[in-house]
Amino acid sequence: MSLSLDATTDGRAEKALPFFSKLAHAGVGDWLFRKLTAFFAFLILFLACLTAFTLWKASVPSIHKMGWSFLTSSDWDPVQEIFGSVPFVYGTLVSSFLALLIATPFGLGISLFLTELAPMKMREPVAFMVETLAAIPSVVYGLWGIFLLAPFMRVHVDPILIKTGLPIFKGPSTGLSLFTAGVILSIMILPTITAISREVFEAVPNAYRESAKALGATNWETIQLAVMKPSKVGILGAVMLALGRALGETMTVTMVIGNTPQVTTNLLAAGHSMASVIANEFSEAVGDIHVAALAEIGLLLMVITLILNVAAHLLVWLTTSKFQR
Amino acid sequence: MKTSIKNLMIGALAGTAMMGASLAQAASLNGAGATFPYPIYSKWFYEYNKSKGVQINYQSIGSGGGIQQLTNGTVDFGASDAPMTDDQISKVSGGVLHFPTVAGAVVLAYNLQGVESGLKLTSDVLTDMYMGTITKWNDPAIAGLNPGVTLPDLNITVAHRSDGSGTTNIFTNYLTKVSTKWASTVGFATSVKWPVGVGGKGNEGVAGLISQIPGTIGYVELAYAIKNKLPYASMKNKSGHYVEPTIESTTAAADGALKKMPSDFRMMITNAPGAEAYPICGFTWLLVHPTYSGDTVKTITDFLHWYLTEGEGMAKELYYAPLPESLIKKVEAKIEMIK
After folding, report:
1. N or C end of chain B: smaller count of CB under 10 Å?
2. DSSP character at residue A175
3. What are the chain A neighbours of B63 within 8 Å (beta carbons)?
């Protein structure tokens, strides 16, 4: 930085300076850059508000007709024009949290192994393979789900779960279920959790690890105290980003969830999701109220995502302030 | 090297300019709508462009979207698998004429080991399956229709479309006509509230469910069942005959429904009379305004004449049923109304 400044104060170099550098030198560039980046930032805010406004405007007929019952009713009947969002909200939340439940321990395990335990030669290739999972298009996951995972679950996994006798696993199973959707979503969000938490773990100063080791900590204790604990916020960030992807996932979920709008505690039963119903019914929805109800589902999905994000930030804020104390 | 690239670029530029010019001069039409007839429409528009030099652009965005765009006036014509309601027509400035183009059959495909073909079903049994009152394949009601066929002790999994579709509209319209119970509890539309079953997205989704889950029965378009080599059931029709879904039995259904055909052609031809008629089929329509400005009148009427004379012959190879001769004449007479 100082080196380049020195060069510009030199008379000969000044002549050769291009126009923009001259501006920068005069402080105009800084000003312009600040305004430009601020504009970009506000553009995002504007776009989010515009999206919410458009969705709200499109859903007015449904809001008028259904009122609050849209949020409390489990009926979704396009013929009678009665629309309730409960089964879709339920399916989206259950499949997404199920995915988090499966993917979080796996993802953290993988990244801990890669940053703390694996031999150096192995780290990059394995990390690369995991991150490749993120590049697979969701429709490909969906096809894999319907042709391979769903039959596999029906024949091999579900019968074992049914035998446990737990009330959340009841047969008969078709392989298309909230549970299968959760499993496939967990594979899809695994790279997000792994990649981010790996960055977070790598950012932990080595001095922490060395100190823990010097105090006689075992490998596990070192990971627990010196790596995991300072990374809490980062881990939560990784999980939230993954949840965002799971909530909005459309094609994959629609292929394996069974697309039946019902609320059931049986995870092996078919369900439906918010993004799926929009993708499924929007193009052929002919009634005004039907189209509006789908827009309202979109609005609701946006609100739920917002609430979850705010909740996550609150959680981060609470844990960090506790840390500082 | 440099000059050759330069020449190439000039050539390309000139080419685009010429293309733009020819597009501006030649007549063209824009349409949007149903996905079900898209394969035959794209063939028609391609052949028509080749022989008459008229470009027809068609976006297969779904019937609902087609009606929407026609109402908004962003396209010259729409296309739909379900006839528009009076309410919808009243919203289109200038009004709408329905032109049936081809008919399609909706077949009940199934996955049942040991029953590789020839399952027979009646409207009652089919309704009970989709209402969830018959749940096993060896139910006496099914066995009674299929003497000599060993039906397994297997749960019936009912598959339906999860996306809104004209196919669902035809299928549920049939169930509504044959069962008062279905009519009062479910009804018909492009998406309905299914009493039981799992949903697959698109014909391919339902075909996937059928081939993956033993004991599944689901409805798909005839072309899909044939291409995926799925076995499908013969249905007992209104005259009491078991009829296999074919192109011929679909045209026969259109023929059978002809007597009751209203003058605006807005009619669901499910459960049509006729010994040869397959009961679950329907038309798909082009939606056209009765008035157009300028040259568009000639462009659109020319095309309508062409599809009724030349186009219908191409339907069979793509597994669509052509309109019966007697109907073609009636539709042809309707073109006069466009001014």
Report:
1. N
2. S
3. 284, 286
Residue B223 CA to residue B50 CA, distance in Å, equals 26
Residue in B with minimal Cα distance to A261? B193
Q: Using DSSP, state whether A91 is helix, strand or coil.
A: helix
Which of these ranges, A227-241, A290-304, B275-289, has the smallest mean pLDDT? Answer: A227-241
Taking contacts as CB-CB distances below 8 angstroms, the residues of chain B near A291 are 64
How open is the CA angle B155-B156-B160, to the nearest 5 degrees? 145
Domains with residue ranges and CATH for chain B: 30-102+283-335 (3.40.190.10), 105-260 (3.40.190.10)
* Domain end among A18, A36, A58: A58
Query: What does DSSP assign to residue A287?
Result: S
Instruction: Work out the minimum CA distance from A6 to partner chain B, whole angstroms.
Output: 41
Which CA distances in Å does A245 have to A89, A111, A178, A230, A302?
15, 19, 17, 25, 13
- Regarding pTM above 0.95, the answer is no
Closest-CA distance of chain A to residue B21, Å: 34
Shared-domain flag, residues A113 and A91: yes
pLDDT of residue A15: 55
Which residues are paired to B110 by β-bridges? B217
How close is the nearest chain B Cα to the Cα of A104, in Å?
A: 29
Q: Which residues of B touch A285 (CB under 8 A)?
A: 64, 164, 190-191
The domain spanning residue A312 has which CATH number?
1.10.3720.10
Residues of A in contact with B82 (CB under 8 A): 286
Of A79, A254, A285, the CB nearest to B162: A254
- Pairing between strand A76-77 and A82-83? antiparallel
Contact: B198, A76; criterion CB under 8 Å: no
Examine the fold and report which residue of A42, A58, A74 is the final residue of a domain before the chain moves on. A58
Contact A147 B190 (CB under 8 A): no
- How many domains, chain A? 2
Confidence grade of residue B63 (pLDDT, cut at 50, 70, 90)? confident
Segment A296-321, tens digit of pLDDT: 999 999 999 999 988 888 887 877 76
- Same domain for A190 and A302, yes or no, is yes
Domain assignment of residue A110, given as a range: 62-324
